């Protein structure tokens, strides 16, 4: 079936096609909440702290507030779109309905970069924690990466119910660890001495102030803007929740609740960690600006080195929660694009017994590991090990920002093109909230380009985009399948066109 307006061809798949790609429904409100919070919570354990080097404490705080506003606009938009279009494709399916097959594919491609690379970022932080706890030589880090991927791919593949139970348990444990840290840190904090111990050196770079008492904004407002990409790590991946739409028991009721509860939880946690972690004696914002294990540093400050193994294991929980949940999202994201024919359809096969997209998860994991190993060996183990987290973080945030822009545009277009579709939830921020999301995401991208580690990774993102777009242009667009989200988009697209034609005649 050829669609001359969009330049794509569809075929109707028989029942056996979808039988081999079936999913099971299990998730309720709290499972969805745990999926969203669990995906993000590692960003409160590691990664966000690099922003102290570009903005100081005040810059990090204000950047966090700006990014929180962006995520409020995004999550409210998603909370409206996801129950209205309850498909596993999430961002891709929103954009497909709003902007056609090419818009859907490009949005899915941006999100694909985010979900393939974010687990790779997190596993570098997990490995750094393990090396610190056990005193291992970092040269063996790639073996630990492979081990952690194998363990958590197994948990994700061998049953949806098991995966969601593990997600809920480790998310609750992670939040309990954070609350325990806050309670422990408050009596020990010395904000002015330690959180404000960053100044500006002659070369414009951050320097340590031995007595603290520095400016809140040592790098001025430009430092706030330069810190935006790092503040994203406090909320990155909350938007993955709609990928569970076809595994949710009642997505129209539960999805908005799960998303909104999730973003509120994360905003509280983000403020507490930004305030307390750098305020501890012997830690400080300057030291944290280069630390791969900031929460562990905080625990050591309070409890000393005597219990470092136990404290390290405790501090690992958040990283493990996010690694597990984003592997889940990675599998569903690749699965949805594959089931509709945008990626090779073999990637959407589900396990005959467990009904999980094991092929998609394994393929995404192999690609993520391959990227890590290329960086590791091309730069040398010592150099690669020290910057791999930052390079991969920049690549993941780059894909995420473009995805957010496309989702916000989709929200605006759906409000205009399909005003009458059922919307169980309506965003209180409406179109202005989506516009604000676009503006902040664009500014974040502009400042991300100025990060010297950005260029090391963005070239490879561009290569992946070029290869995938060439594949879709030459092959994929002629092999699309009428999956649920594609049928929904085509049906409502015809209705929208008919309504527009009627309005023009009138």
UniProtKB/TrEMBL annotation:
It is found in: Cell membrane. It is a multi-pass membrane protein. The chain crosses the membrane at residues 26-45, 57-79, 140-159, 166-186, 216-238, 259-288, 308-329, 359-379, 391-414, 426-446, 458-475. The keyword Transcription regulation does not apply. It holds the Pfam family AA_permease_2. Keywords: Cell membrane, Membrane, Transmembrane, Transmembrane helix. This is Amino acid permease. The lineage of its organism: Bacteria, Pseudomonadati, Pseudomonadota, Alphaproteobacteria, Hyphomicrobiales.
């Amino acid at each position: 079936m050829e669609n001359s307006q969009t330049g794509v061809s569809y075929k109707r798949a028989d029942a056996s096609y979808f039988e081999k790609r079936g999913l099971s429904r299990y998730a309720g409100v709290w499972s969805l909440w745990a999926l969203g919070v669990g995906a993000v919570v590692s960003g409160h354990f590691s990664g966000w702290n690099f922003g102290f080097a570009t903005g100081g404490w005040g810059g990090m705080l204000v950047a966090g507030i700006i990014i929180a506003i962006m995520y409020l606009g995004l999550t409210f938009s998603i909370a409206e779109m996801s129950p209205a279009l309850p498909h596993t494709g999430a961002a891709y399916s929103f954009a497909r309905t709003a902007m056609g097959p090419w818009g859907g594919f490009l949005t899915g491609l941006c999100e694909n970069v985010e979900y393939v690379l974010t687990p790779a970022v997190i596993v570098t932080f997990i490995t750094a924690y393990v090396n610190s706890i056990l005193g291992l030589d970092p040269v063996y880090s790639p073996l630990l990466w492979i081990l952690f991927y194998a363990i958590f791919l197994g948990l994700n593949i061998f049953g949806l119910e098991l995966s969601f139970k593990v997600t809920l348990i480790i998310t609750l444990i992670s939040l309990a660890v954070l609350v325990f840290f806050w309670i422990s840190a408050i009596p020990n904090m010395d904000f002015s001495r330690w959180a404000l111990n960053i100044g500006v050196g002659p070369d414009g770079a951050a320097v340590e102030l031995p007595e603290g008492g520095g400016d809140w904004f040592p790098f001025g407002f430009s430092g706030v803007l330069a810190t935006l990409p790092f503040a994203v790590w406090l909320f990155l991946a909350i938007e993955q929740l709609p990928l569970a739409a076809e595994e949710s028991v009642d997505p129209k009721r539960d999805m908005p609740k799960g998303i909104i509860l999730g973003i509120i939880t994360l905003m509280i946690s983000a403020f507490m960690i930004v305030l307390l972690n750098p305020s501890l004696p012997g830690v400080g914002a300057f030291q944290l600006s280069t630390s791969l294990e900031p929460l562990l540093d905080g625990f050591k400050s309070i409890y000393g080195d005597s219990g470092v193994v136990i404290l390290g294991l405790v501090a690992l929980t958040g990283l493990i929660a996010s690694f597990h949940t984003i592997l889940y999202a990675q599998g569903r994201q690749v699965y949805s694009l594959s089931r509709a024919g945008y990626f090779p359809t073999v990637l959407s096969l589900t396990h005959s017994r467990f009904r999980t997209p094991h092929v998609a998860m394994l393929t995404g994991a192999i690609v993520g590991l391959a990227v890590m190993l290329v960086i590791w060996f091309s730069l040398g183990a010592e150099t690669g090990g020290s910057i791999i987290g930052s390079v991969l973080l920049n690549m993941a945030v780059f894909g995420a920002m473009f995805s957010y822009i496309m989702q916000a545009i989709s929200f605006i277009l759906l409000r205009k093109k399909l005003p009458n579709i059922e919307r169980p939830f309506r965003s209180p921020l409406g179109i202005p909230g989506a516009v604000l999301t676009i503006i902040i995401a664009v500014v974040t991208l502009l400042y991300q380009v100025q990060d010297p580690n950005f260029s090391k990774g963005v070239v490879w993102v561009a290569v992946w985009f070029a290869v995938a777009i060439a594949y879709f242009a030459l092959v994929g667009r002629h092999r699309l399948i009428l999956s649920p989200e594609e049928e929904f988009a085509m049906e409502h697209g015809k209705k929208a066109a008919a309504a527009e034609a009627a309005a023009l005649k009138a």
